[in-house]
């Protein structure tokens, strides 16, 4: 399939070939769901923590004699039946992350790219950089693709590690940037606009072709 390459002034320059195996796949909603859940789970921090009876502060002395009082026997006041005692079976910090099959993850990325190409929210733009590293220069370059009066969540896909462009993009709240070989399903799927540099589109063809 072919797509138009647009300049930063919004003019059509030429056509670029997009691989059917990357941008022309049928939409697989299940694999997209699993990929996004996997990313969210890997970012989750299991910080909930309670103290058991061996960790709470207190004495090991019996609160009263074991026999002769008529009351239930107790070894110390750190037991979970006392106020201020330990918690029984309470939560501890845990790792929620898990590995997703490599082929399934690649399929999810290709499916999302295909979805964006088919619904018209994916744009191929000529390669550009922001030599000044200034946010206003980057926003000016993206103006033909984004409504600046009400900007929507936008994803910029890069071909290489452009430090100055990334520096300019850090201060734009509605913009996130991804490298062609390190895509994130969550950002891609929820991005209302996906802007792909021309060189990044060619590398996507090669990287996800198999």
Descriptive keywords:
single chain, 210 residues, alpha/beta, Ribosomal Protein L4, Chain: A, 2 domains, six-stranded mixed beta sheet, 7 helices, 32% helix, 14% strand
The gist of it:
By secondary structure, this protein is α/β, with parallel strands linked by helices. The chain is 32% helix and 14% strand.
Which stretches are poorly predicted, pLDDT < 50 over at least 5 residues? none
Q: What is the CATH first-level class name of the largest domain?
A: Alpha Beta
Overall number of domains: 2
Q: Could you estimate the helical fraction of the residues in percent?
A: 25-40%
Q: Widest sheet: strand order?
A: 2-1-3-6-4-5
Q: What is the residue-mean pLDDT, rounded to a whole number?
A: 92
Shape category: elongated
Record the SSE blueprint.
Layout: E1 2-6, E2 12-17, H1 20-23, H2 29-43, H3 102-118, E3 122-125, H4 135-142, E4 154-158, H5 163-169, E5 175-179, H6 185-190, E6 193-197, H7 198-207
Parallel strand pairs: 1-3, 3-6, 4-5, 4-6
Antiparallel strand pairs: 1-2
Helix pairs in contact: 2-3, 4-5
